[in-house]
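quick one before i forget lol
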Amino acid sequence: MNLEAVNVGIWSVVPPIIAIALALITREVIFSLVLGIMSGVLIYCFGAGLGLMAIFNTTVDVMVNSVSGNASMIIFLSMLGALVALITRAGGSLAYGNWASRKLKSRRSAGLLTALLGILIFIDDYFNCLTVGTVMKPVTDRYKISREKLAYLIDATAAPVCVIAPISSWSASVVAYYPTESGITGMQAFVTAIPINLYAVLSLIMILWIATKKNADFGPMARAEKRALEMDTLQDDSIAMQDDIARLSVSEKGTVLDLIVPVLFLVVFCIAGMLFYGGLWDGTGKSLYQAFGDTDAGMALSLGGFCAILASFFIYVPRGLVKFVDFFASIVAGVKAMVPAILILTLAWTIAGVCRNQLQTGQYIADVVQNSAMPVGLIPAIMFLCACGISFATGTSWGTFGILIPITINVCDLVAPYLSIISLAAVMGGSVFGDHCSPISDTTILSSTGAGCRHIDHVSTQIPYALTVATACFIGYIISGFTGHLGFGVAVGIALPVSLAILFGLLLVLPKVIGAHKRRLVTR
């Protein structure tokens, strides 16, 4: 069935509002996403003149299209779940946890190591979310760092790192959407925009603050941390990610290397897969960056996951850590553990597809902003807010890039060329913010999955932290917009320190205002 896009005006924002509001109110993500999808399809069917009876087959068509376009990511998630189960059964996770408890002497060091590991894995945000969670969950559990905080540390070092890393799947996406008729290349614009990409820079600074400072948490996160310190175990039987894997018999002969080596194989194979699918070795003379830009990340990650499982067979089975039959039983358990995450992702992809492709939600919001009469100096701040809204409503950063980057650069070229790079950074940062917070965002879902945290708990505890950073960024973009005519370096030199000062001020005040009870907690 050919589903052409329709223009339904303000009705295009109704489905994401329904899904997000219900998710926060009912705390039932699947129910909320299904209602959001059905409302979107209902609006589409009436807007396209298809009638009431077309709702059901249209819903199936949209869902099938969404899943088929992301089939490689489903395979990767399944393989990663299998690899986690194998590492657990071989005793690698247990050995790593015991080693870390001897080497890491405090909750602070465990949190800092989690943040640093997340910063180091900058190639792809999906890979970041699941790998960091797999490696660090035994350590953070031992020091009673809440699963909500682990999910935040993972999420805040996924997209924010990727969006300022020149060699990543994200930079390739930004470059692809950058207008070719502009005076500089997309890569030049991307690199130049890094210091004024305030949301990414300030997010990374904030996680280092939150990970290392005592009594720094506030709001729902402070309550989650208090609860974690009072619990005997952080195991949550409601999290399906843990159920089947937790019941596996664990080898007592496993070593730290039995966790590190398979993860390293996964990293190497995934990077090699990206270069392979990007055509680095196809004889056309592509550069390393061009290969990253042309790659198919989903296919590359799937290939990396398959090769890592194959390598783990030769690491575990000949040494007797895992029996031949148990090896394949562990794969089944790991795949089953990923089913809830895959279900939520499927629904999230579906509602994002309805909003983006059928109702054109993002384009509607962008058109409203583009047609409004705004002072030139407010362009970066307005574009930041617009990117926040579109990515939050649609759950996608890359989709927001595709909508806003061409519009932003063209507008700036016409009225204020000196604001082009600042506005580009504002769009990238705002896109990451919305994707960071949205309950229907794939990276948000994967972060909660990697941490073994209930998805809606991750969303509710992370939003106040993301809003704190976004507030400082918004003020920074107002300043940079009105100082941009003095030169890019001057605008950065004023806006970045002011934004940092505002952020640190908020981080000092907020725990006292909405997290004072946290000070009674004893942290080691």
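fyi The chain is about 75% helix and 0% strand.
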